[in-house]
Design a protein that fits this description.
Blueprint (H helix, E strand, L loop, with lengths): L4 E7 L4 E4 L5 E14 L5 E13 L1 H9 L5 E9 L8 E4 L5 E14 L16 E2 L9
Parallel strand pairs: 4-7
Antiparallel strand pairs: 1-3, 1-5, 2-3, 3-4, 5-7, 6-7, 7-8
Length: about 140
Amino acid sequence: MYQSITIVGRLGRDPEMRYLPSGDPVTTFSVATDRVWTDRSGQRQRETAWFRVTVFGKSAETANQYLSKGKMVLVEGRLAVDPKTGGPRIYTRQDGTVAASFEIVANTVRFLSPREEGIAGTEEPPEIHAESEEDMPF
């Protein structure tokens, strides 16, 4: 059996890095993807889907170093499912309404935004890959 998801979108906020009790780094960030189409009446429509992305190990450090709000990325990985439902993680918002969160454990993160022009000493960010399934702590 195999499962894979690929998304392209922009970061909704700066990445957040933390460390597991084992000392391994973990970085999370949110990515917005848009779908734009014209409906039958000729009106332009837009639908935005948000994904929460988690990256582990050296890849987490690299993502935290090079990514920031608004940067475009391609993320390849697997969906992390809610063990109770087998689907997206379900939670209750502060206002009491139910919401769902699509979560991806990244294997690959490709930086699609060009590096900033005119900044001395900037280097091209590398493409990051999880070295193996063993790099992921679950």
